[in-house]
């Protein structure tokens, strides 16, 4: 399955560019990029291309020490008012407290699909791989290849699924002390600035959608045909192995502490995509 349209690279400059606060970027050798947040500004980068399907990975070492009030985000998003988005948001915390990871999906401009979990390691002491796998059948969030969230295509039930908008890849660090830590009760302590998130291991194995392609042809461009075979069209891709299925159950049972599907205060009737596989608590 050789495919020249896919790009896979570990080099930041080939895939990404700074999108704001260029002076808050520090390059450490060829491999490591650091973005810093201080009282003046956060920082962000974005991919040079837009993509359909595939797998995106970046290795991140999160802000050490007291990171309360800060958010580091890694996400894919399309443009426009009815955009699609797949989010990781790493919510800082006071020294010694574990980080929270919030994931969310926006589909056709609608989000409200938050899940929150604590990681099973300290994400500030080393680089860990955070991945988004997007196929026509599902979206998977993976941490060091362990699945932490699975969002399946249930269009057969009338539930929309992200499949017709190419997405850019983004990351940013910013001050969100109005909500990030304990619901906004703990504020950012600027005496600990700058807050630094470090990045390495940039990989995108996806279908590049050139800006010249008409919207009607997006999915044609990135679907397998006689001429080209894309790995994400294989029916088994993204299907969890028995081991991964057990890992996901373990993560949900031991590390997840918020799931929109079981939040009866927000959703007295469970959202449609939650109803097939989840019993209400």
From TrEMBL:
Domain of life the protein comes from? Eukaryota
What region holds the GH16 domain?
A: 2-199
Q: Where are the transmembrane segments?
A: none
Q: Which GO terms describe its molecular function?
A: hydrolase activity, hydrolyzing O-glycosyl compounds; xyloglucan:xyloglucosyl transferase activity
Q: Where in the cell is it found?
A: Secreted, Cell wall; Secreted, Extracellular space, Apoplast
The biological processes this protein is annotated with in GO are:
cell wall organization; plant-type secondary cell wall biogenesis; xyloglucan metabolic process
Against Gene3D superfamilies, the record matches this protein to: 2.60.120.200
InterPro entries xrefs: Beta-glucanase-like, Beta-glucanase/XTH, Beta_glucanase, ConA-like_dom_sf, XET_C, XTH
Q: Which residues are modified by glycosylation?
A: 93
The protein's Enzyme Commission number: 2.4.1.207
- Which keywords accompany this UniProt record? Apoplast, Cell wall, Cell wall biogenesis/degradation, Disulfide bond, Glycosidase, Hydrolase, Secreted, Transferase
Gene Ontology CC: one annotated term? apoplast
Q: Does the keyword Disulfide bond apply?
A: yes
One family from Pfam that matches here is XET_C
UniProt PTM comment: Contains at least one intrachain disulfide bond essential for its enzymatic activity.
**Active site residues per record:** 85, 89
Q: Ion transport: is it a keyword of this entry?
A: no
Q: Which family does it belong to?
A: Belongs to the glycosyl hydrolase 16 family. XTH group 1 subfamily.
PANTHER family named in the record:
XYLOGLUCAN ENDOTRANSGLUCOSYLASE/HYDROLASE PROTEIN 8-RELATED
Q: What does this protein do?
A: Catalyzes xyloglucan endohydrolysis (XEH) and/or endotransglycosylation (XET). Cleaves and religates xyloglucan polymers, an essential constituent of the primary cell wall, and thereby participates in cell wall construction of growing tissues.
Q: What is this protein called?
A: Xyloglucan endotransglucosylase/hydrolase
* Native species: Coffea canephora (Robusta coffee)
